[in-house]
Write a structure and sequence with these properties.
The protein has 187 residues and is an all-alpha fold. It has one domain. 82% of the residues lie in helices and 0% in strands.
Length: 187
């Protein structure tokens, strides 16, 4: 038992919450955007990514996760943020003509995507468990487990941020490395 909740019940809620967040992301990606709206969204994301670092990615994601811990409010704000992220996939879908479902799937199945959503699912499920514990008059027990859960979420999101930054660096350098290939030179 961790806090006032059995591990099996906690794990089940964690899995359900994580899957629900993935569905919310997918729902956001299925929004219909005009060419102009998609260009605007991509421009906004490009500005955010200009001076991106592992720590910026981590702190952005960790702030979102901390909001998700807040009972009731965290569910709505977290859901809105994840949905909004889905609309960014919709924008890239418009620009690239790649179906949004593929873009979301690729992101969710990436190592950093899996870790991010596990972190978000853990944070949001804990928000639900705080409410449950308060109703059961066992909030003190759950409060003792909270620092451990926050630490686990931070670990997942920091690892995800490092992997995401590595992915960004690899893809951002790929085109320049392709230009340096000279097929006329022999090895």
């Amino acid at each position: 038992m961790l806090g006032s909740i059995q591990i099996k019940k906690r794990a089940l809620l964690f899995i359900i919450t994580t899957i629900a967040l993935m569905v919310v992301l997918l729902s956001g990606s299925l929004v219909t955007l005009t060419q102009e709206e998609s260009e605007e969204k991509i421009q906004q994301v490009s500005e955010l990514l200009r001076d991106i670092t592992v720590w910026k990615i981590f702190f952005n994601n960790f702030q979102i996760a901390l909001l998700m811990f807040i009972p009731v409010f965290g569910t709505f704000i977290g859901g809105y943020i994840i949905y909004s992220t889905g609309t960014v996939f919709a924008a890239y879908s418009v620009q690239s003509s790649i179906p949004a479902v593929y873009l979301v799937g690729l992101s969710l199945l990436s190592p950093y995507g899996i870790l991010e959503f596990l972190g978000y699912g853990l944070a949001m499920s804990e928000g639900f468990l705080i409410i449950y514990s308060a109703f059961k008059k066992k909030l003190g027990s759950e409060a003792k487990a909270l620092p451990l859960i926050i630490l686990a979420v931070a670990g997942l999101l920091l690892t995800a941020a490092a992997l995401e930054m590595l992915t960004i660096e690899i893809y951002s350098q790929a085109p320049s490395s392709l230009w340096s290939i000279n097929p006329s030179r022999s090895p």
